[in-house]
Amino acid sequence: MTRRLLLAAFCTPLALAGCSSDDATEPGADTEIDASTNVDASDDDASTNVDASTDAGTDAAVDAPAPDAVEDADAPDVEISGVSIVESPSNALAWYVDYTTDIAVATDVRVTCASDDDYEAVALDPITERTTHSVFLMGLVAEDECELVITAGASEHRESRTTPAVPDFLPDATIVTHDASAAQPGWTLVNLNNHFDGVPLTLAMFDEQGRIRWYHRTSLGRAGADTAVALVPEGILVGEKELGIFDWQGQLVWQAGFATMHHEARPDPNEHGLFWYLGVVECGDDPPADSVVAWNYLTDTQEYFWSFCDNYTPDPIAPDWSHTNTIQFFPNDDDLLISSRNQNALMRIDRDSGEIVWVLGWGNRIADGFDGDFAMAEEARFYQQHDPVFVDDDSILLFDNGHPTRPWSRAVQLQITEGPEPTAELEWEFRPSEDIYAPIWGDADRLDNGNTLVTFGLRSTTDTTHLIEADADAREVWHLELPIHWGIYRAERLTPPSGFVLAP
Amino acid sequence: MKPTTLSLIAALVLGASACGDDAATPSSDATDLDTAADDAGGDVAVPDAVDDADQDTDDAGGDDTTPPDIGVDTTPDVDDDVAAGDAGVDGGDDTAVPDTGPVDQTAPTFRDIRIALGEPANTEFDLNTADHLEHLATPVTISARVFARDDSPVEDLSVALVAADDPSTALPEQTARFETGLWIIEATAAAGTDVVVSATDAAGNTGVSAHRLVLPSPAESMARTWERRTWTSTGTIDGTVDLAFRDDGTWCVPTPDGVEAGTWQVEDDELSVVTIDGATCDDPADEGASYLTRTAPFHVDRTYFSQRPLLRTEGSTGLAGTWAVTVVETDGDVVREVTTTLDLSDDGTFEEHVRTYWRDTVPPEANATRSGTWEIMIDEHYEDSVGDFLVRQVLEDPDPEAAPYQVVELYVIRAGRLLLDPDLDP
Description:
The complex is a heterodimer.
Chain A: E1 7-10, E2 33-39, E3 80-88, E4 91-101, E5 107-113, E6 116-125, E7 132-138, E8 145-152, E9 155-162, E10 174-178, E11 187-194, E12 199-206, E13 212-217, E14 228-232, E15 235-239, E16 242-246, E17 252-257, E18 262-267, E19 274-283, E20 286-296, E21 301-307, E22 324-329, E23 336-340, E24 345-349, E25 356-361, E26 375-376, E27 386-392, E28 395-400, E29 410-417, E30 423-430, E31 443-446, E32 452-456, E33 466-470, E34 476-481, E35 487-494, E36 497-502
Chain B: E1 5-8, H1 10-14, H2 49-52, H3 80-90, E2 109-117, E3 123-126, E4 132-133, E5 140-149, E6 158-163, E7 166-170, E8 175-179, E9 182-189, E10 195-200, E11 206-208, E12 213-214, H4 218-222, E13 225-231, E14 237-245, E15 250-255, E16 258-267, E17 270-276, E18 291-297, E19 299-300, E20 304-306, E21 310-314, E22 321-331, E23 334-344, E24 349-359, E25 365-377, E26 388-396, E27 405-414, E28 417-420, E29 423-424
Parallel strand pairs in B: 4-12
Antiparallel strand pairs in B: 2-3, 2-5, 5-9, 6-7, 6-10, 8-9, 10-11, 13-14, 14-15, 15-16, 16-17, 17-18, 18-22, 19-20, 20-29, 21-22, 21-28, 22-23, 23-24, 24-25, 25-26, 26-27, 27-28
């Protein structure tokens, strides 16, 4: 099978501790090329290089030594021509760059924007067999002066452009707190919802300053609002009843419809192509209940199925009694951890037998004395929780939404001890200094530096959604607030790719 | 639990999209999705080529017999198409025939086409690998961002949104501009017209997008089986029935007492639904039976169908404001106009007024009003992720014995229309 070589050049580490939080430079509707200089180390033929296809003759090309290249005696002299910079049709903060070289040579392309010069969008192309080059660069800053540098052998080509504003359909976030010395570097990927204003499900990444650095409005019409968002090798897996994978160029590379899918589509940590989702199945005379399905998007086959119907009977039983919202994986075996919001409980499922091994939390059977299998102090109780995750072998971090009788939310980490007398003890919590009650959505992720990113997600006409990063001492080090009507179900902190080499 | 639809968009993963471009994925692993990689052409590199770049091996894709380009290439890089044209012109007597340059016989192509539709569709998609279907009840603004390619300057192209079945017909109210390397075209699109993108260069070569925006007529959009839901006071689904609008112009819906059925037609942006006494789903047009015809504005889109949406008469973009709809009912020889006006005030109170006006009948009209308070209830139930709820506490009702009571309705606002408990495409 012939394979196209696709190289992902990842951005330089986002060590932006010293980043300025200044706003972008003066907005400019004019996105014309400001300067275009074709630099050649040795060719003193001052030929003018006009790229008619893109620049309409506006770029003046000047051959001159490349400052960093003249030291390399082996670097060939290269003429870089036909440079075309085209904004991505789906994302104004990304460029397609095409160019040719007069000899086959490895090249690299970098873009830096004035207000964030710690970030470089980079595409490194080591292929030395081609003279026609094409790259995709992303993560630019809106309304900023950005400089493109193409390096080929001993030559450089430089151009500057002013990027446009992000479209009006995107929200303006507010940074409430940013302690750059303590926050985990990286950008935050979210699935933006605004049902009230009819906005399509939109993927976006916010930088530390709350600026949108990448976005894509999806075409998923029945994605719902409670949509998972996760990275897979092909791009971003997002959606619900309509589920899709979008690559960073905004291209829909896979799509499927799952009639009963809700809340969860989580990639398997060990098998590429496999993801786990929650569905709904009929349960005879009882109300429908949730199911757990593993689906392989590479082979379009179902690889696992489990349902509550044969394994758990709540009391009382009522419509939507399970309302499961998360599937997770135990660190050291195949068992599954699921989160049932309306049972206020986490459950361990033996993947092979389907048996529910234990229930952690209240259950919904308080009336008959059922209190889960773990002894818990009051401080460890959680309500209508979302997105539990193991942060070590016996500690679970989750978003504790709260309840109308306890109307505040928090992130909480529980240390669980299994065995004959299981216990769950409060190990850590983050509760904002001013309480936030997010009753229906939420997320809590442990970051690489030990901080925790907490999503107080809301869909509300009166209250706002908050993303807060707290350190190990439960101190708020980063806090982003969305405008009213905008909500986020889950958020992921990541270091995104910054550029790709495309096969010409 | 099989997917209802499933499509593997291998071409994009390949970077061999139908619009002639090379997309990439974040990882070479993505090529595992590739079901047609061998068709990707001979000019692609294989992963091994990274290591083998300096060797005269056959790993460099399909161009196996050509040594890698190493060293100085003294041959100017010339586009193949241009080169072909050159051959034709330069092959003659240059002194006798003025060199007018290569003959451009290459039509523009499209690397990426992104379409955004305004209300009520309010969606965005591409036309790179597949057609896109959208159901519209009203015309929408359409904005296309087109990454075109040609061997002539792209900014000199003429790029337009045109009817698919007649590319010479441009969509109305169209503007086009070139900025940031893209053609940005804005126009108005209406149901019943399929749309493609065309690009024409100075030599008259025209390229048309391989895929189209499909906009069925309102009648075609309606002809589906819709799910009619009822809701509990907490906003969970209480029950569902299937409402079938068939493309043969008949409809039927089960009722507790049996079935209602009849015929339907769309004319002048209004829907007429005829309910025929005694009709069944199998025999909906029982000639001679009495019938009731309701004619009103309607709404249909990808998800929702409403036979009688309320149209905004006052207010902003939210739910608060004044909404109204008039339904003309023909019941035998009796014709009446029923106008419902719903006033949702910012202070949380509402008043709903129903005026019935009989044509050629005395008394000419009757009025009924109910009032109370209203609020929005957020839909927390994933099965219902199609809207939120308008909850009204009715404190005064024409039937004094009835009030107080509560009304819970799913609501959606689309294109200035308030859809209350719309039927859903399940």
